[in-house]
Amino acid sequence: MTPRATDRSRDDREEREDRAAGVLLGAACGDALGVPYEFAARLPEDRVPEMVGGGLGPYAPGEYSDDTQMAVCIAETLRDHGEPCSDLALEQTARAFLRWRREGASDIGAQTAQVLGGTERALAAEGAGAGAAETMAGLSARMFGSGQRCAGNGSLMRTAPLALAHLDDPRGLAESARLYSLLTHGDPLAAQACVLWCEAVRQAVVHGTYEGLHAGLDLLESGARDTWAGHLAEAENAPPGSFAPNGFVVRALQAAWSAIVHTPVEAGSPDRYTAPVQAAVRAGDDTDTVAAIAGALVGARWGRSSVPQGYLDAVHGWPGYRADGLAGLAGEILRRHGG
């Protein structure tokens, strides 16, 4: 191999590692940026969101919320297990969710709280040998089967790290996204949203584009593709604020995608991360979640190097991660899964 080819290979690897780190850091910084404005009055276009803390926690300045806290639970599982869909990996994630609920849940969505609380009670009744993942997914499925609303945005906000374990395996990623969503969200809509966004994140890391969201339609069951194509078209034709309230998973995805497509930036622009993520915050309503969802994809495309140093210096959260720790966790996932 010539020195030039070697240099190019090293450059490609470093760019991929930068974009991989951008997934977790982009989500965490978007989350922390949206925290102060969750369910508050929508920010005007000339107001710049800031990591000032407060919100529903209340949170310290730069502290991320449940969106990233639950994503970290998944990311640590991916670090520890080579097969994301294995029973052991799903069990570790379910147990981590329960530990987070007991020890670190500064805020928790109603649907997720119901599932995790019900799982805790069931495990206490059944004994220590019961499987948390099976219990959790079973309860989630029964809730959906009973007619309860089970298509909140709580699984979409946390599943982006799965892309890092499947950079060369879109079908495997789709299956992981589905299974990790179904742990707490029994509605297929939530799983479909996770499949689409995870594939968008995967292709952003691998190729540095946003083309993966539409390409992900092919990973859905055939009956859902036209419906989701319509949802994406709506997002591309209306501003992000049109999709508030956005607790419903479809509208959360639309708000995040709208913020990205309606905030075009150039590759060398210093605000290539901040502009679309701030637009996601200005969408209003569930601001930390929409900005975390958007931030994961924007970070995947532009990388850690696109995130302002001030954000990286401030961002932190349960169970003790700061920016370098989140970036290191992304790197460990890549090494575990051959990325």
Ordered list of secondary-structure elements with their pairings:
Elements: H1 3-34, H2 66-80, H3 87-103, H4 110-126, H5 132-145, H6 170-182, H7 188-207, H8 212-215, H9 222-236, H10 249-261, H11 274-282, H12 287-302, H13 309-314, E1 316-317, E2 321-322, H14 323-336
Antiparallel strand pairs: 1-2
Helix pairs in contact: 1-2, 1-7, 1-12, 1-14, 2-3, 2-14, 3-5, 4-5, 6-7, 7-12, 9-10, 10-11, 10-12, 11-12
Distance between the termini: 21 Å
Integer-rounded radius of gyration: 19 Å
Order of helices and strands: HHHHHHHHHHHHHEEH
Total beta strands: 2
CATH architecture: Orthogonal Bundle
Fill in the CATH topology. Answer: ADP-ribosylglycohydrolase fold
Flag low-confidence runs: none
**Helix content class:** 55-70%
Strand order of the largest sheet: 1-2
The coarse overall form would be: globular
Q: How many discrete domains?
A: 1
Largest sheet, if any? 2 strands, antiparallel
